[in-house]
Amino acid sequence: MSLASRLPYDHAFAGGYPGIGSQPLPTDADAIDYLSRMATADGAGVETGVAVAVDAFFRDAKELGVFSALKACCILAGARTLAGALVPVVGDAPTNVANGFVSGDYTRGGATPGLKGDGTSYLDSGRANDADPQNDNHVAAYVTAGKVAINNGALIGAQNAAAAYTMTGTVSYNRGNIGNSAIQITSAGLYASSRKTQASFLYIRPPDDAQSTESNSAVASGFSNNLFVYGYSNSSGSLVSPTDATVAFYSAGTGMDSDGLAALDTAVSNLITAIGEAL
Q1: What domains does the chain contain, in order, with CATH numbers?
Q2: Which pTM value belongs to this model?
């Protein structure tokens, strides 16, 4: 059986790229598996442009050494349906809590692809905050649109009873109770925090994608409540500081150094740009 006949794309795709015969078929095995699961959830094939963008992301993330750090991850763009968008790249599928998000909240391509928050709806990532080590963890979310007030609005995170946070959004924390200065989420791009040492953590945010180091020791070895997306979970498992941002990608997992954060930023930015242009 040929590779083309096994791929879950539109029927025309099996014959190659019409008019663009020099471009290769997706070949990354993990990308093909993801695309197949997405197509099953969508009930329809994946367009060529989306397939190529996803395949490039998988290959780039692996070549840049960051794919292995992704333990829970969704691409909230490209899929034909909301159900397809919630198919995980890796890890458990998130829970659309109380079915708060509906199909009208989802934009698959164009200038601002992603799933739009409304200040109430959220995803439970299915990944416990303590699934990753105290000094080896990250959370990240790629925003394409949205605005929240200063000191209010988390993109992904969790908190324990001692007010130690793992979170990124208006403020980035990582297993500590001190974060970087508050901002408004007004620029598209990757917001992330990552810890690789006990004494400090890194964070990155747009518009200039500059990285910074926060000198703040981890004060929590991990807390078991799950990481929420479009806000953060508190110690009782409730949603806190929801956001209205449109998120097109999120991830959580093990930590990254400065080069790793930059690599993740590049790989995700290229992915979301390519999907937007394809659709």
Answers
A1: 3-278 (2.60.120)
A2: 0.91
